[in-house]
Specification:
four-stranded antiparallel sheet, 6 strands, two-stranded antiparallel ribbon, 18% strand, alpha+beta, 5 helices
Length: 155
């Protein structure tokens, strides 16, 4: 029987591998494959939306509100409503993009686990150890896992 699961590359993963050896799974029965991080970075770069909304939706909405304020107060200011409207649009949009950028950078600095690569772990074990294997694996909270029994009769 095979157990296939994915984890973030971390110290806990190393402890899991050690615990598997403690319960009698030999090193020749464990296969750990790290995924390349450059592909994960490409996935982040190509993501153009956050939570179903385009990245520019909020900055452009705030820019529009600043444009409206620029047009309103532009009637009493020197350069007039058209120029102040354009200044409000560009300034509000750029300011909101800058704030969004700074917030996302601070979140990445606080949560270094976002850039961790993933590791696929595959374990070959006898069927009678199924319950113990599930118990050990769930203790370390995998990103996902599956069981594969090649000896099961196929229909």
């Amino acid at each position: 029987m095979y157990l296939i699961c994915t984890f973030h590359h971390s110290f806990e993963l190393e402890i899991l591998l050690r615990d598997l050896e403690k319960i009698g799974v030999g090193r020749d029965q464990i296969l750990a494959i790290p995924l390349h991080q450059d592909m994960m970075q490409m996935r982040k770069i190509t993501a153009t939306s956050t939570g179903g909304a385009n990245i520019l939706d909020i900055p452009l909405a705030i820019g529009t509100a600043c444009m409206l304020l620029g047009v309103i107060y532009g009637y009493v200011l020197v350069w007039g409503p058209i120029l102040w409207g354009l200044i409000g649009l560009v300034g509000g949009t750029l300011l909101t993009l800058l704030v969004h950028y700074l917030i996302s950078k601070s979140k990445q600095a606080k949560e270094p686990g976002l850039d961790k690569s993933e590791v696929i772990v595959m374990v070959n074990f006898p069927t009678y150890r199924l319950d113990r294997m599930r118990e050990v694996i769930r203790e370390y909270r995998p990103l996902g896992f599956a069981m594969l029994d090649l000896n099961a009769p196929s229909n």
